[in-house]
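Reopening closed ticket. The problem is back. First fold of the pair:
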Amino acid sequence: MWWFSRKGPSGFSASSTAEEVTQGIDGTGLTAIVTGATSGIGIETARVLALRGVHVVMGIRNMEAGGEIKDSILRNNSTAKIDVMELDLSSMESVRKFALQFNSCSLPLNILVNNAGIMATPFKLSKDNIELQFATNHIGHFLLTNLLLETMKRTAIEQRKEGRIVNVSSRRHQLSYPEGIRFNKINDKSGYNSLSAYGQSKLASVLHANELARRLKQEEGSEITANSLNPGVIATNLFRYHSFIDGFVGLLGKYVMKNVQQGAATTCYVALHPQVKGLTGCYFADCNLAEASSQSAYPELARKLWEYSSNLVQT
């Protein structure tokens, strides 16, 4: 659509693709973890980062699908550095196992892309008895980030390069209740609304990045940034739990939504572009700085969420 072509201060727009926003950037020597790299913008993010020379570790649930995607990337880019490691973000045990395995490999870690997510699922509890969307979209990434943070700090010091943590959120991170996340209602099936639960989990992604950025700023010599982003409305299989929406996406999505190449652009921009250097606690959309929801600007809510999440991952 015509409004996709309006460029922002970065020089990019909603119509820019991941390849376009990373053109000319050399990521050789960098290592990135991309969660959820077996579908949608996760695949494209992994592919484009590898295209720019980044060593990409795909954290995925389905190892068979991951192997096929790795082979596909290598067929088109024989020099790509791609590894596949099993990761189920809805399970704290799986997250801890992944982090232990990665840290034991003695690999550096420059970029962590918390991309994996599920949307508008029927009510279900995770293996750890947490509402599934909140467990997958937020708690799993919260725990993963904490377990990998020391490796990122060490890498930043040794390589003298800024580390970047990128949380993929959504435009649906605005909730109808003004106080934001209802900590005492997360696992409550009564009155459950799958889209509201999704919005809550994505608000948590933004608040997590904001609070992490605040904490990292307080650490002397820390060279790690944490930002969140809205990839845009993309025609992917995230809508599969809502047949009407899924049908609309299939019929008209290509005319009013971003394709996967455009959808992965902001993620790749925030992860790799030099324009983002030094920026932290920010929110991006269409490869430009943007305003997040008013609820995500509450520092006290971000601190409460951090405490709540910390208590959950310790149990």
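Second fold of the pair, where the issue appears:
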Amino acid sequence: MSRPVALITGAASGIGQALAVAYATHGVRVAGGYFPGDPHDPARTRHLVEEAGGECLMLPTDVTDSASLDALAAAAMERFGRLDYAVANAGLLRRAPLLEMSDERWNEMLDVDLGGVMRTFRSAVRHMGEGGALVAISSIAGGVYGWQEHAHYAAAKAGVPGLCRSLAVELAPRGIRCNAVIPGLIETPQSLDAKNSLGPEGLAKAAAAIPLGRVGRASEVADLVRYLTSPQASYITGQSIIIDGGLTVRWPD
């Protein structure tokens, strides 16, 4: 029997890259999508996967374009002959106060961070059978908390768990599971962007509020996602699981 295959969007950096490596170490082959406009080198992901003993296909992918995602899923099928898991990880993060929030900014954010999840899953599910699994990456910004000057981002991320709950019910008769992961403060290229996110100083300051005393690592989120798509999680569907070092359950000082 051939080894399972996972499709990952946003696979050139951060959580997506860490997940590709985690899959490789557990015998799962990877079809990774990356946005060609980003500064991250997809060859790095391919190298890390192969170094871990895995197989990796990396293709330019635009999650706002259905045809692009259909092509990624079709390429996975052509290369590997099957598609078992899909992880909607690609995301956009931009700072925009409400009074500067143009319709274009609002629509772009929701098109990537929420619409991109739906399109990723729709393209992948066409090729999945019983035992398939979907995971979408949400955020505590929107998934739990509000975030000033990021209403469009929070709104999109808040929609992800609702989408996953509905798809969990819809796809259960086919034996396909769907869950959301809600990361807290995780060190990634996105969170290290001081213009649109917290930046290095903001992350270091925020660590003091986290019960475990530090921000999370991309590999820790990747391990959770990998588990949720594995046979060991065969009875978990429709859930939104927070991974935040205890931040959201801390009693305020």
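Update: turned out to be a display glitch only; the data is intact. The chain has a mean pLDDT of 95. The two ends are 54 Å apart (CA to CA). Please close again.
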